[in-house]
Amino acid sequence: MEHFLGGDWEIIPAGGITGKAFFARQGGQELFLKRNSSPFLAMLSAEGIVPKLVWTKRLENGDVISAQHWMNGRELTPEEMKLDRVAKIMGKIHSSDPLLSMLKRLGKKPFLPSMMLDEVYATIDMMYTHPDVAAAVRYLEKQLPSVPESQFVVCHGDVNHHNWLLSDEDELFLIDWDGAMIADPAIDLGTLLFGYVERDKWTSWIAQYGIRLTPSFFQRMKWYATAQLLLSIEWDGEKGRFHDMNKSIAALHRLMIEEKNVSHINRQ
Q1: CB 3.0 to 4.6 Å from 53: which of 19, 45, 90, 117, for a disulfide?
Q2: pTM of the model
Q3: What is the domain extent for residue 170?
Q4: Of the ranges 18-22, 66-70, 156-160, which one carries the lowest mean pLDDT score?
Q5: Residue 132's domain is classified under what CATH number?
């Protein structure tokens, strides 16, 4: 990387599990560099979802390096996830035809609920004997036929608060799009609403997103939120992050005993 930019650049790994991201600094110029990022990044930049893309260049070995403006800022706190601006950005992403067209051109196919369940089967191992985990898997199996395969949009897939960047200029971005998919919007919204927003705020939050909250959409969000919690429990356990794993198990337990009466939700 130093050879590519020149010896007068300071290159620092930017963290993350892939090892593909770097911070570069030369004088007053600061860049966020990533190796082999998707061409989807350019469209996200054009839509204002991620920090501005400055350039992309191909190396002799075939690697493609992308450079974005480095944004000084911080991740959102869990409390800030209930802000209207988060809902509005998610609405913008999920309703974007250019983003959807780009992912289709890149060969992405819809991620079906049956594929999500298959991913759970392939991932859950050491935790399968836990009663809450076993109950959640049975719930996914039982409810799978009622999860529709008809609404597909661009989804981020991991909208937890760590992936939201609030710049020092008060610009809000959703970053780390390596897991972008074409899927049911409930896959993102379930994580957001069940994970961060109090129930009495749901109707107003999702109105800012751009739809009405119905009982059927509630059930879709619950189904996907359950699947994602199962995947995170297994991942945290494998990484030895037992505190996070136990928090997710507690959240899974609450989700499994979620009240069945959703009559307070607006009906169409």
Answers
A1: 45
A2: 0.85
A3: 75-256
A4: 18-22
A5: 3.90.1200.10
